[in-house]
């Protein structure tokens, strides 16, 4: 199993999650983070750290978020690892909770 970053991280990217990961699973894109499913050890530490509730276990993925499993795996191969928290976008709070943000994903 793995943990998966889902839609609500897009344009929020608070990065609270990255510092707790013991195996440096998180990879950073322009406005989204993903988890490398080949590295994730299912330790659960990151899930409660996300203020946007945008991290879920693979087995708990809502039906409308299933595409994020493949998207995390795909983008983790091309985006660099992030291990230190950084400032979130200035408008992150405005985007928290906005539905269907996949259309805004920058690669
Ligand atoms: S804490 Fe949540 S919103 Fe922030 S980068 Fe991590 S997964 Fe995305
Ligand atoms: S569950 Fe653990 S290993 Fe997997 S991404 Fe989260 S913190 Fe990292």
Structure notes:
It contains 2 helices and 4 strands, in the order ββββαα. β2 (26-28) and β3 (33-35) form a beta hairpin. It is mostly loops and 107 residues long. It starts with a strand and ends in a 12-residue tail after the last helix. The longest helix is centred in the C-terminal third of the chain and has 10 residues, at 67-76. The mean pLDDT is 97. It has helices at 67-76, 92-95, and strands spanning 3-5, 26-28, 33-35, 55-57. The strands form 2 sheets. Strands 1-4 form a two-stranded antiparallel sheet. 13% of the residues lie in helices and 11% in strands. Bound molecules: iron/sulfur cluster (SF4) (2 copies).
Rg value: 12 Å
- Dominant shape: globular
Poorly predicted runs are none
Bound compounds, please?
A: iron/sulfur cluster
Helix content: 10-25%
**Strand fraction:** 5-15%
Short note summarizing the structure:
The protein is low in regular secondary structure.
């Amino acid at each position: 199993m793995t943990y998966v970053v889902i839609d609500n991280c897009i344009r929020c990217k608070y990065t609270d999650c990255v510092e707790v990961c013991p195996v440096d699973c998180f990879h950073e894109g322009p406005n989204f983070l993903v988890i490398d499913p080949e590295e994730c050890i299912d330790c659960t530490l990151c899930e409660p750290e996300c203020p946007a509730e945008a991290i879920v276990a693979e087995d708990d993925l809502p039906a409308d978020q299933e595409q994020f499993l493949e998207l995390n795996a795909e983008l983790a191969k091309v985006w660099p690892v992030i291990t230190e928290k950084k400032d979130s976008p200035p408008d992150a709070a405005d985007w928290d909770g906005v539905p269907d943000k996949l259309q805004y994903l920058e690669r």
